[in-house]
Structures
1.
Amino acid sequence: MPFLLAPGPRRKRSAPASTPPPVPPAPRSGGESGPSPHRSTFRPDIEGLRAVAVLAVLAFHAEIPGLAGGFVGVDVFFVISGYLITGLLVREAVSTGRIRLGDFFSRRARRLLPSAAVVLAAVAVAGAWLTVPLRRTDLEYDVLAAALSVANWRFVSQRTDYLAAGHDQSPLLHFWSLAVEEQFYLFWAPLLAVVVLFAARAVRRGRAVRSVVALVTGALALSSFALSLHWTEHSVSLAYLGTPSRVWQFGVGALLALLPWHLLRGPRPLRLLCGWGGAAAIGWCVVAYDASTPYPGYAALVPTLATAAVILAAIPGRGERNVQGAHGVGRLLAGRAPRAVGRLSYNLYLWHWPVLVLAEARLGTLGWPARTALTLAAVLPALATMRWVEQPLRRSRTVSELPRRGLAVGVSAIVLPVALALVVGTATLHLMGPATPVDVKGLPPGAASGPSLLAASGASGASAGDGPVVPNPVQARKDFPPDRNCQVAPEVTRSPECLFGAVDSPDRIVLLGDSHAGQWFSPMLAIASQRGWALQELVKQGCPLPQLAVDSPQLGRAYRECDAWRADALERLRTGPKPRLIVIASLNRYTTNAELLSAAWEKTLKPLRAIGAPIVYIEDTPVPGMDIPACVSGAADTAAACAFKRAEAVPADPLARRIAAGAVPGVRVIGVNSVLCPGDGPTCPAVRDRILLYRDDAHLTNVAAVVLTPRLERLLTDAGALPAATAPGASVGDGWTVLLRDDFEGPAGSRPSPANWQYDLGTCYPGCPAPQWGTGEIETMTDSTDNVRLDGKGALEIVPTRKGDAWSSGRIETVRSDFAPPPGGVLRIEASIALPDVTGPKAAGYWPAFWTLGAELRDGYTGWPGVGELDVMESVNGRDTVFGSMHCGVLEGGPCEEPVGLTSGPQACATCRTEFHAYAVEVDLGAGEVRWYLDGRVYHRVSAGQMDAGTWKRAVDHGVFLILNVAIGGKLPAADGATVGPDTEPGHPMRVDRVMVKVRGGGSGPVSGSG
């Protein structure tokens, strides 16, 4: 359990902070109606027990040899809290018939929050000095979470996310247990108040109150323990840090306070055995447990019940005031030294972990003697905080006189660190630059060969000192492959389909492995798309592709889900269509046993070779072993300051060596480490040619992967695993022939290629056979670059503009009008488009479209709709929907239900305005149907059987030309309920990333226009 490197327990409160008002004497000591006899006796042994708990945690965090199980101290704290707090509340309920929540929370606030606020404020300020900027922003978020008592849930979200791994420890990680305890208070006190209210109304007797509360406590404790067992099996971080899975430990302490132990005398030897046995069990856990112990789960029963035994041994029996015998463990715990440490335990717990982490942030990794010395040094600020913050506020008559004053102190203690965190965090974010995703289309091209990362770059040693790095450190943290969560999480046993690119193509590249395979998603998708192929991603986080048995840090146990996923992926490849290429990659350090690794790889490669497809292994990339974005954020000379040791980062890759030696037939190997870690010096760079290479301590940024695409393509081609990419007019595999491809490359503000595109101008075709383009739209189409232009990043922009009340926009057509399916074959027309990013009243009247018309309309512009119109993509009024339609037949009615056409109806697409999506239409003469696709998914079909043969042939069996435009106003937006008005906002472009036309089957060459 990696998080045990930091999560210690939580401090513990001394005996109830402010002793409640004296309780009237009970009718009979230990009687059924009065308060429990162990109600008001101060328990010095519990104060000493706190010392045991905090010393165990401190020893664990100091990494003292032999005390690796010190994390059980947190369990001791939880049981003590459950016992003391429940006893306090129930005594009040039995004596007064109710629980004063204001008084309770006022006492808790005075006791806990001021000291915590001092530590949080100190960490927020010290972090600004001792940590690098990116780490500082993380820290300020931690301060916010800790101040608001939700730190445990912040750390749960980080530790259950495999792809968020690799960050440094938080100086506030120990606040997880404080958050758990404070959440317990917020839940437990009101619940008991309600339970007591009903119990007191029914029977105003102490036994009734305790019985009802005990029943509720027992039920909650059992449920919580069952949940703890389940989460320990399936998500150890959630089990360890989550509040619901810890409630049962508070419940055990609560039951100690609720059940009538005070009616039992018990022989003194049994009490002695109970107390010393519990103490010995706690000590055994500290020595015997370690990070490999499944925890909490069943293992947590031992320290929890052991703590209960120590507390139970000293509960006074009938007629007794004190049972601290000369030989009992309570006598030892009640000594002056244990009690002194116990009184300091809360503040010592608060201070020790920030001291350790911030010191290591400044000094580097420290050994256990230095960590022990720093832990001891934390006594000084802990004493100061107790002396000048905690005790004065607890003892202040002014503050304790009214509950609202204590609550005001608590609120102030929350606001102070929150304000500091916001100020420091905001300033740091401003310093580091934007957090918006990198536009990969604006990246410089990568070099296909040679020592430099970039084509036409400077010297290979160029550094980030020449300008800002890309991505910047904030962006790098989130610069993941855009694969829509296809790198499946640890608990998942089967990958979804995860097809990308030309998903209908029978040809595909399969990307297979762990997250070190997943980092190659963008290059592999680009390579597949250039050839008209699909890409299938079968990737699982932290799962070795060789058949090794490993543990999952996220699950905290044997990674059985990895074995199940691997077997499923191999079976799917065996039984599915044969891929054109299988690309495999995996972290190469799951084991150091070369013989075991070789055998494990062979178990995986044998079924892969049987498929018969080319297999290429990409040599594992460097593993820096340090948080690279954080380092770069604080380094003036990033190329040098954040370099890491080559020997540790690039160990020998056993599989790569065996493949190169010819010992693994049927598998080829390629690698890019010569450019990621050039030369033969002792270190590897974190930044090359101003490209920040790593997003964490082990994975490439997506930017780096994109820049490496040309190099990977050349290596795969040179290895004979890929055919060379094809130009328009050449075959791209399995009969596909590209007739047109435009990626809209060119300088910003320039016009699209006149070889491919021509402009429609004005408000109708020449001769105006249909004014306002036949649709009632109000714009005038122009050839101005204000309306149609390239953005310089590989996209076309069509922008509606307005001057006064006059709207203008752009409408372009392909020069060619002979795009047609061959006899019995398929025509595919596709584009990657991002719709105008405007919605609501500002989008009223917007009508972006990508569509085709029959070639006959170029000759006199007559014959619509019989000659056919295929609307590949339309959208109106900024809706988060798109649709496709076919028009044919006659002007009114007919087989195409004109003027509406055979439409798909709205298709939801929440990100179509903010992201590029792939739209396509296929005219399949062999199958006798037209199909519409959104991101590879068929969402609409029209078949030849829906109309007579003549109508079908005239609509689809001929050449067409393509149109891209953004109209303003017209019949369709009006039918959708919006018209152009003063609120309609100009200037929002439709962006087109690429357009492609290709055919397959029959005679695949161009067809003349008349069809």
2.
Amino acid sequence: MSIYNDYISETEERKNIGLHPKPIDSAELTGEVIAQIKDPNHTDRAESLRLFIYNTLPGTTPAAGVKAKFLKQIILGEATVPEITTTYAFELLSHMKGGPSIEVLLDLALGNEEIIAKQAATVLKTQVFLYDADTARLKEAYDNGNATAKDILESYAKAEFFTELPAVAEEIKVVTYIAAEGDISTDLLSPGNQAHSRSDRELHGKCMITPEAQQEIRTLQAQYPDASVMLIAEKGTMGVGSSRMSGVNNVALWTGRQASPYIPFVNIAPIVGGTNGISPIFLTTVDVTGGIGIDLKNWKKQVDTNGDIVRNENGDPVLEEVYSVATGTVLTINTKTQKLYNGEQELIDISRSLTPQKMEFIKAGGSYAIVFGKKIQTFAARTLGITAPVVFAPSKEISNDGYGLTAVEKIFNNNAVGSTPGKILHAGSDVRVKVNIVGSQDTTGLMTSQELEAMAATVIAPTVDGAYQSGCHTASVWDKKAQANIPKLMKFMNDFGVITARDPKGSYHSMTDVIHKVLNDITVDEWAIIIGGDSHTRMSKGVAFGADSGTVALALATGEASMPIPESVKVTFKGTMKEHMDFRDVVHATQSQMLKQFDGENVFQGRIIEVHIGTLLADQAFTFTDWTAEMKAKASICISQDDTLIQSLEIAKSRIQIMIDKGMDNKNQVLQGLIDKANKRIGEIKSGVKPALQPDDNAKYYAEVVIDLDIIEEPMIADPDVNNADVSKRYTHDTIRDLTFYGGEKKVDLGFVGSCMVHKDDLKIVSQMLRNVEKQKGLVQFNAPLVVAAPTYNIIDELKEEGDWEYLQKYSGFEFSDALPKSTARTEYENIMYLERPGCNLCMGNQEKAAKGDTVMATSTRLFQGRVVEDRDGKKGESLLASTPVVVLSAILGRIPNIEEYKAAVEGINLTKFTPMSVK
């Protein structure tokens, strides 16, 4: 059969499940489609023409290259297609977003056919996705006196590609749809168990919320054809968790508008709202698509006549409704007054949603166009030898006299690009910054590769110190979906210049190490800025931002990111940890004590947590930084002592060397370069030339939180509180309870030690606890399954050398095999210990899952509904989060232990200790 016939067969299968033909990215298929278009008598000519025009992916896809060349042939008269005139061919090229289309347009604009050159120039003036090779051609032509090149450059210098766009409407009508009450996890919008389909946008769109919700949205659109549907998190925050880009893509697919009639299933301009605003990473992704995110503040804490907060019987603040956003409410966003209205009634100021920069994103259809537009304007003005006119909103630059700098302010100032020379910038300033380290993960990586193709990028920016493509989210099961997607992804990223977990040629053993752990190791400078495609991109060195797949693509392509400098909250510690406590308990207590200190207000949300971590090495400190994603912080920074930082860098060097020894370095010797940078940084610290990063004594913080270690008496558990009468209180990570709350009675169906929140010492604790229980009872018997997944292979290798892995094997009923990886996900568990392959495992929820309705005790970060465990009839699934010793003992007992049982089980075990550093 021909490739086309195979494609038509697949199309028929898709039609049976309500899907359109899959967008074409193959050069071979596009070539066959074109051959059928050229044959006037071909039976499939009409369908081939439709597919060529409306269903071929743009950018740098192989299909785009073939399409652009054929359009060039039509324009030059070398091919004739009656349905595609020269003018129409130019229109199609104008929607192809860079890459081969730019090459063709430059060929035509700089050619000898005057009329064609003018038409090509007119189209080029609207394009912004140009790279060095493209701008070099323009510059060379201009230097050689080419008038068309000069005309194009003059247009670029004026930024006519932006100024000629239609203005943003003064009034935007919306109709509300409450997607859920309480925090809305992106798992509701893009479930982790459907991660395999994220690059197939139409198919993935079928999983958003529920089919019933999708129909309700369609009904609202039919009732209010002149309004956009605004998706709302009532009494909660919109978009917490991971899967931002696929979540926003789905929201846009159902509620936004098509970006181009010639690009299938790429929608833009979604509008979302939340009572407590939008999660920072999710909001950045909304900006990527030219959408609007609104902090509705439609519920507030009730106060009595004395001004005190009114509380219910549980001690929680009582909320009262300020205004209604019930489903079907018609509201108006006024972009001029920057207010939200219900009819004539003004509801709230929304100026933070409509800043000058955000208005530019809305006008341009997304933030990428602005980023590239600014670069092309700067290039054109420099080439012409003129000063670029002020077209774009000037970056806000805030400099507060009399105040020093927080740690994040220092990093942003150090990495700033294009800001006023010599000006010190404080929180709130808009900054372009150099990105040092970039991470892409495997369930969003295919989307990142699509974004790179769409923005016509072919090679990693040379200014990026290092970038890594992981394989951890699909590590558990090497099923047909993973086999189809992962090799394709690894080849693309390897060719692009990224260090990959799996070599496309099979010359080194695949690594499924958790992405955050690898990024934590390859970050070798605490002054670094890291961008990663996962919400838990939270390094204990440098400042790391979890990002959507598109922002990751932008960082890979340009080596830059743009964002305001966030405010910081300073976290310090006092007192002494109890011997029986683990550092994970300190992490949970931090959230609990913070909420109590600030009357339930989460001062971490949207800000940097500057944690003065003191004696903890990078691996252990990562336990804190990782959890800050669940605290809804934008990022976190660890303030380390000199000797601690040096030790962490030495560990990082050794692990990078292992990657080199496995053959993972590339022709640019990126990994060796990181070791060299680590050595340089260690030398700076030891010599005193540049000590470990510290904030200034007079830095200004949004808030300061002091955590009292003395009052942490018992292990702490983050409880999803699935049966809370107030649904907005469920699955929030804010319900932190001590062990005694459960009375030693709550049944546990499965324990999970694994994912990114554990390190080597946690696996040693498992081994030591097994020894302790064996000593007490003569034999370890599990009354619930215990799944153990080390985050990296390095840890397993070290445990083997130190004798711990052998003891884990003694009590395991299953041990992973890289030679024979699982091809299907486990659906049933026995009461044994499972030693699983390094990777995300249950935490991701896209492959392995607990049985429906189970109560899971886990060391991971996920207690979102349906992620680790789904509901069943009559019982909600719940994932409680705790320290490693609590999880292990819960699996052994089949229930949550009481405090006496816990203390006996951890006696003599060296739990992760922590001594606060002295703070000035």
